[in-house]
Amino acid sequence: MQIIKGAGEWAQPVGGAANDWVEQLRVPDLSVGTYCIPAGGADTQSPHTEDEIYVVTSGRARIVTPGAEAEVGPGAVIFVPAGEEHRFVDITEDLTLLVVFGPAYGSRAASPA
């Protein structure tokens, strides 16, 4: 067993960065981290090669994918399949997301030829 300290807790992005991503746990089959975007900020992520679950721990925003969009706030749980474009927009309150990747973040990334 392991207690994952700091997971899902707000952290101000460092040095004027648009957002903040911190991975707190990594094993081959999954990884857990926290993604923070300040109110009015920009979500600059690209689609991932792994399936992903977001749990909104604080803040409010709208998530947009090619096929849908939804308002999200504390307690919302969002599944995004590998490869799907997605972005948080209209961030009206500092947004904190507990993020779970399966398998671990970046583990399916294409290797250089």
Automatic annotation (TrEMBL):
<protein>
    <submittedName>
        <fullName>Cupin domain-containing protein</fullName>
    </submittedName>
</protein>
<feature type="domain" description="Cupin type-2">
    <location>
        <begin position="35"/>
        <end position="101"/>
    </location>
</feature>
<dbReference type="Pfam" id="PF07883">
    <property type="entry name" value="Cupin_2"/>
</dbReference>
<dbReference type="InterPro" id="IPR014710">
    <property type="entry name" value="RmlC-like_jellyroll"/>
</dbReference>
<dbReference type="InterPro" id="IPR013096">
    <property type="entry name" value="Cupin_2"/>
</dbReference>
<dbReference type="InterPro" id="IPR011051">
    <property type="entry name" value="RmlC_Cupin_sf"/>
</dbReference>
